[in-house]
Amino acid sequence: MNFAAIVHDIAEALRPQAGQQGHVATYIPALARVPADRFGIALHTVDGIEAGAGDCDMAFSIQSVSKVFSLTMSLQAIGDALWQRVGREPSGNPFNSLVQLESEHGKPRNPFINAGAIVVADVLLGLGRTSADLVAMLSDLCGEAVDIDEEVAASEAETGFRNRALANFMKSFGGIENDIAAVLDLYFRQCSIRMNCRQLARAAGYLCSDGAHPLSSRGGARPALVNERLTRRVNALMLTCGTYDMAGEFAYRIGLPCKSGVGGGIIAVVPDRLTLAVWSPALDESGNSWLGMKALEMFVARTGLSVF
Ligand code: GLU
Q1: What is the pLDDT of residues 204-230, one digit of tens each?
Q2: What's the domain count of the chain?
Q3: Nearest to 251 by CA among 236, 265, 262
Q4: Is 308 among the domain residues?
Q5: Ligand 1 pocket check for 231: Cβ under 6 Å
Q6: Structural domain includes residue 263
Q7: How far is the CA of 113 from the centre of ligand 1 (A)?
Q8: Cα 45 to ligand 1 centroid, rounded to whole Å
């Protein structure tokens, strides 16, 4: 398949529509300043072939896409013990909802809603991990130095009242072990990591290669990041819980494990074949990138690639 031509055609077709529908997230003030008319797409195959088009080299705030990598790091460290503290079911509620937490005694439904990702941050902090470790992990996976957008991190900390409420609420049930301010600092900083589509597609490469380090296809021995079993589990969670309360719609229309963020980025996995990253900052009502979702739909229609 000529992936370079495919992503080029998708960018040609969609870029003119960037910013025409949906809205850039404004509840984090620093994100509101991102121009809505951007669109980027990139992919990385298991053999190390890469292709990108549009604004694929422009860095953006990865936001909740970071939850895939923090989940991976926590599973690497403590394995199935994580599931005593966070569930694995879709929530069917907005990503920052407090409602379900009360009836479920402070245990978040899954690691991709904010409450679940805050618990994962608590686990990592308890193991002595910091946001710098996540930055190092992502830099290692994509083979380029990535960093944190300090303006976004400060903006999140300033306005993260709901996340603070979630953390305090869970603490009241005994669900958070460490100091709340330190846990939230890690969480806000991981969300503020900035990367471009090429880097993200490459970094997520372990998810389509049974856990192999994405750069191992370039030669040179590199230890696998995680094992095959763990990769399958992360993919399953992405498929069922990765796109806010639109996971059913994503499974129906795209049929790939995906994880989105309010910065407008989405990563998608075609197991044993490739990983994709798309970015366009304007979001639909569910918080997913409006044009990013369209791009993924177009990609699967054109290539016939799907897990189904
Ligand atoms: N930092 C964002 C928040 O906690 C992440 C939201 C997202 O991308 O889903 O609100």
Answers
A1: 999 999 999 999 877 777 888 889 999
A2: 1
A3: 236
A4: no
A5: no
A6: yes
A7: 9
A8: 28
